[in-house]
Write a structure and sequence with these properties.
Largest sheet: 7 strands, antiparallel
Number of helices: 1
Structural class: mainly beta
Number of strands: 13
Distance between the termini: 51 Å
Helix content: 10-25%
Oligomer: single chain
Strand content: 35-45%
Strand order of the largest sheet: 4-3-8-1-2-7-5
Shape: globular
């Protein structure tokens, strides 16, 4: 009987990280050959990825794909974060599902709601706010748990833009 309990404990401990996946943010970019996803977390079997447009509108309809649709791809250097940014790619033709060429992705949310100035990612236990703004040469994406910033990505565009961020540079420190 104790052997069965030990085997059950080992199985539960090995699957525990899968059950504890948090919401995270990512960018996506679509081209003729498919879709790229840029994230700071490795995707696992239970992750769902929800894609929303970069610009919010009243009638936003986000789309969801499964982790199995993506493969790890070559590293990139135009997305910046406080951790290594991973590049995932799918070659599936998904333009009919996602009609925007670039935007934000929310990993592991049950659903994503568009608000006038942000997105709300909802899980069984929590709600996270996602804010996006344009910096001098790129797009800032911030993830908040309440008022505390817990994640940040910066998408370098390679050209100057009109800044809409309160702090127009890259310097958005996590934990503020």
């Amino acid at each position: 009987m104790s052997t069965i309990k030990l085997a059950l404990t080992i199985c539960l401990v090995s699957f525990f990280p899968l059950a504890q996946a948090d919401v995270d943010i990512a960018f996506y970019q679509q081209d003729e050959e498919g879709l790229s996803l840029y994230s700071t977390i490795p995707l696992n079997a239970i992750h769902r990825v929800t894609f929303c447009p970069e610009q919010m509108t009243e009638a936003v309809s986000c789309r969801t794909l499964k982790r199995s649709d993506f493969k790890l791809a070559e590293q990139i250097d135009f997305i910046m974060a406080d951790k290594e940014v991973l590049h995932f790619r799918t070659s599936r033709h998904i333009k009919s599902l996602i009609k925007w060429n670039r935007g934000i992705a929310v990993i592991n949310a049950e659903h994503v709601v568009s608000l006038p100035d942000s997105y709300l990612a909802v899980t069984r236990k929590k709600r996270y706010r996602i804010k996006s703004c344009v910096g001098i040469e790129g797009i800032n994406l911030d993830l908040f748990d309440g008022k505390r910033k817990i994640g940040n990505l910066y998408f370098y565009l390679g050209y100057d833009t009109m800044a809409t961020c309160e702090s127009a540079g890259i310097g958005n420190n996590i934990g503020q």
